[in-house]
Amino acid sequence: MKHRYFIYILLVLAVSCVNPIPRKPVVRKTHSFLKESVMLNKTINASEENAFRALMEKDSITVYLASPNGFWYTFNKKNINSYLPETGDQLYYIYDVFDIDNNLIYSAEEVGEQTYIVDKQEIIEGLRNGLKLMGAGDIVTFLFPSHKVYGYLGDANKIEINQPVIFKVKLIKINKKNESN
Q1: Distance separating alpha carbons of residues 39 and 35, to the nearest angstrom
Q2: At CA 160, angle to CA 109 and CA 147, rounded to 5?
Q3: Ranges of each domain in the chain
Q4: Which of 22, 73, 108, 141 could form a disulfide with 94 if both were Cys (CB 3.0 to 4.6 A apart)?
Q5: What is the full DSSP assignment across 72-126?
Q6: Which DSSP symbol is given to 2?
Q7: Is the four-CA dihedral 82, 85, 91, 96 of positive or negative sign?
Q8: CB count, 10 Å around CB of 76?
Q9: Residues 121, 127, 130, 136: what is their CA dihedral angle, to the nearest 10 degrees?
Q10: Which CA distances in Å does 55 have to 44, 64, 102, 162?
């Protein structure tokens, strides 16, 4: 009986002294996820672009310009020979935000007057690029696809996920970088 326990202990010790065989890492291919994500984004962008094209065709009187930054805009009021903002200039502006069906989301009164120092502060990409096209006193309507404004997160309030929006912006005043009030 003692020999059996002795053999059992030797057997356990022999097996436990063997080096463990490492497991191979689990490889998860994200390639298909990335493909699906790219396809989804392309579909969303195409859908938003088609909606804006339909809106522009419906409003055939207004001439919309395509920005190289991926949005459309039209001047409702344009001051001729006005100064365009440069890096470091401080801008004062107000804006209304509408959905693609022209329903008001945020009014200028609700948002209030905004200030922005060109290329020195963070604001949404579309507005950052759009303000650079405006002179003091200009009123511009911007058609922003969702990826140029609030994207796949929305604004966590009234603007939904992947919602294209229309901004009507009035640039009130430009304080040039080298000028004081």
Answers
A1: 6
A2: 95
A3: 35-175
A4: 108
A5: EEEEEE--TTPPPP-TT-EEEEEEEEE-TT--EEE-HHHH--EEEETTTS---HH
A6: H
A7: positive
A8: 13
A9: -70
A10: 17, 10, 10, 18
Task: For residue 101, count CB atoms less than 10 angstroms from its CB and return exposed for 0-12, middle for 13-18, buried for 19 or more.
Answer: exposed
SS3 content of the chain, % helix, strand, coil (to 5): 35, 25, 45
pTM of this structure: 0.78
The CATH number of the structural domain formed by 35-175 is 3.10.50.40
Which two three-digit tokens encode residue 4? 């059996």
List the single range of 13-17, 49-53, 99-103 with lowest mean pLDDT: 13-17
Q: Which of 30, 127, 117 is nearest to 71 (CA)?
A: 127
Among 45-49, 139-143, 150-154, the range of highest mean pLDDT: 139-143
Q: Which residue has the tokens 């409702």?
A: 76
Are 82 and 74 in contact by the 8 Å Cβ rule? The answer is no
d(CA 167, CA 105): 10
Amino acid residing at 119: D
3-class SS of residue 165: strand
Is the distance from CB of 99 to CB of 178 less than 8 angstroms?
A: no
